[in-house]
Amino acid sequence: MGFETGVRQGIADYSKAIQLAPNDADAYVYRGYSWESKREYDKAIADYSKAIQLHPNDAAAYVCRGYSWDSKREYDKAIADYSKAIQLHPNDANAYFNRGNCWAKKTEYAKAITDFSEAIRLDPNNVEAYCNRGHCWRAKHDQEKANADFNEAIRLNPKLAVRFLN
């Protein structure tokens, strides 16, 4: 079975699960993942929103919806969802990392650096966070701090770091 066929089957299976158990928030989240993998972000957002309606304290659903908003370049909505996820689960390095990416895309580098720093504090081996924070330092014309982050990324994982530094 190919990827596209598997995604279609997943959507069908989760849709059936939702018919059988319409209050199962996880089924909406998983179907949302499937829509997201097809780049059908509006459908993914609708499913994540339903999951949030059913379980408003599910930080992961906010992160997922934030990612879909980010993919649609609706950064303020993504930032709001990542912020809610952080409020619910303050130790989620991924939420800080993703929110940092949105701040960087909005060229709000100081806020991005703050979020990447927190992501690194929570996950000190996050090569992407070092690379992205380094790019923000460089955008702020602080090459010394940028180089320190790039060097740390390379130290942690030379092959992966090169991918993000180009």
From TrEMBL:
InterPro entries given in the database record: TPR-like_helical_dom_sf, TPR_rpt, Ycf3
Alphabetized SMART domains for the sequence: TPR (SM00028)
Database matches in Gene3D superfamilies: Tetratricopeptide repeat domain
TPR repeats: 25-58, 59-92, 93-126, 127-160
Domain of life: Bacteria
PANTHER family hit by this protein: TETRATRICOPEPTIDE REPEAT PROTEIN 6, UDP-N-ACETYLGLUCOSAMINE--PEPTIDE N-ACETYLGLUCOSAMINYLTRANSFERASE SPINDLY-RELATED
Name listed for the protein in its UniProt record: TPR repeat-containing protein YrrB
Classification of source organism: Bacteria, Pseudomonadati, Planctomycetota, Planctomycetia, Pirellulales
